[in-house]
Every structure is written in structure tokens, then in C-alpha cells.
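Attaching the record inline, Q. Sequence:
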Amino acid sequence: MFQRILVPLDGTSLAEEALPIAARLASVASAELLLVRVVMPPLEQDMLAVEPERLIAQSLEADLEEARAYLKRVITYEHLDATRVRTEVLEGLPALSILHLAQREQVDLIIIRSHGDSGLKRWLLGSMAQQLMRSSSIPLLILHEGREAPGMNLMLLMHPPRILVTLDGSPVAEKVLIPAAQLCAALAQPERGTIHLTYTVKRLSNGEEQKGGRDNANKENRAQAEVYLERVKQRFVTGDLAPLHLTVTTSVVHHAERADIWKRVIEESQCIGDSPGYTGCDIIAMATHGRHGLQRLIEGSVTEQVMDGTHYPLLVVHMSKVEDSFNEVSEAKHV
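Structure, as predicted:
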């Protein structure tokens, strides 16, 4: 279970939308909540041309003091009154400073509210959520702006959650299962949450094989995916995740091209479930390969495409960096 949860804040009410969910998780898990504000130092070479070094230092200290005062106000908020809270004010580049602090403090989960930067601004600067998603070895819960669905983030606190977990058949993709299961169980307390496992399978199209062989191959691929999902489901029924007492459902969806995977994930996230008046998931959970540079430019990142295309919160685990020692069975029993 989560022992320390980090929430980056920037002084805006948007960033503070992460606090109710973080406080709920911290309360259920008896975890410490670490609230962080990062102050970027001035660009000294530019400022020295117009201001003396002494004035630059005074300006930085004023910013740091304002950040400390801001965090003191935040910890008095009503939904934090029953939570162990600690604050940190850092100086440096925001994403890098947060990652270093999270690693030093052995944080189990980072919760951040995305400000919804897109297009040219994201291309030039990159969003904080995007930077953390590409580099963090710690599970990251990204809450969205919710333009299409105002109040979506707060809905996580109104009913037992349903989390859609995307899998591709590989052991590394399964790294997302434990943090997703722990998150689902904690948010559902004292009730029972649901994990929906989904596997996207490539459907052979016209021209790739003769019709008879193509149909058989598609059926065989689907059958193999269903067998795989049933094996993963057993981890929740009789295996290491059984102590969390989660309901588990599964589905296999098809894609024609790799570029369609993110669209199929979003479509599936919107239609799962059978409760009256409640269709879709509450969170999408994915592992990311963390591709960089030319590889990401050519192939794209399915996780980033999902992040850009959905209004649901997104739980991201970095496949190439996450550690195997992620508090498995013993901590799962303490939900």
C-alpha cells in the first residue's frame, strides 16, 4: 500500500484539484502526504544585464518565502485536517526537482493535475505531466482538466472506482497491475472496486492473408488473448492480488494498425460496465515504454496519445524504470 504520496503544486486552484483524491488515499492508507512547490531560479545571465546580483537574490528569496506561505495556507484546507502532511519548497527545474525529491523520499505515488497544455506550447516547453510521465520511475496519477466532463476528478470519490488496465501480453506491461489494484482498492474503501483488464489484438485485414486463413488467424489471436487475460485474472482471484478483494472483468478489442491502439483504448474506456446510469471507467492504467527522441517521433507513444485524447485520469507506470520490489503481497494485505 502507498506509504508516501507526493502532490506537486504551483499556486493555482487547478493544481489543487489533486488534493481531495490525494487526501482520500493518504487517509485510507495511513500514508504521509508530501506537498511540493518548486520555484524556478531567475535566468541569471539575462537578469544580470538589467539588475544587480543582489536584487536577483532578493527576488528569489521573496519567491521562496511566498511559496512557503502558500503551502502553509494549503495545509489548513478542510480535507487535509485528518491527514499527515509535510511540505517542501524547492529551487530548480520543476520536473527534475520533483523527481529527485520523490526518489530521495521513497515516494510510492505522484498525483498531478495536468493543466492541459497542447500544441505549440507543449512542443516548446513540454507539460509537467508529460515530463514526469517520460522519466518517473514512480507510478504517476495524472488528473485531467475535464473540459468535456467537469467534475470528473471528484467522481472518483463518489462511488467505488472502475479502473481499466491495458495489457499487451508482456510481463513488463503487467507492472501496472499492482499500483492499479492498490489504487482501486484504496479509493473503493470500504466497498469493492473493479479492475477491467483489456487486451488489444491486431486484426488481420484484406490483403494480409487469404480469407480463410485470415479468419482463422484472427480467431486464434483472440482466443490466445482471452486465455492470457484469464491467467492474469487469477492473480486477483487466488494469487498475490486476491487480498485486495477486487471485482475483475476482461475484454479483447481489435485494432487494424498500431496507430489505432490509443483510439481503441479510449473507446473501450467509455463503454465498459453495466451499472444503470454508469458507463465507462474512472481511471485508465497503462505502462509506458518511455520512448525518446527519434523513436517516439516515428512510432509515437500510445500512452501519451491516450493522455491527450481522454478526459479520464491516467495512471502511468514506466516499464523500463519501475522496480520489481514494489510492495507486493505484504502491503496489499494492509489496504
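The CA atoms of residues 20 and 310 lie 21 Å apart. The two ends are 6 Å apart (CA to CA).

More tomorrow.
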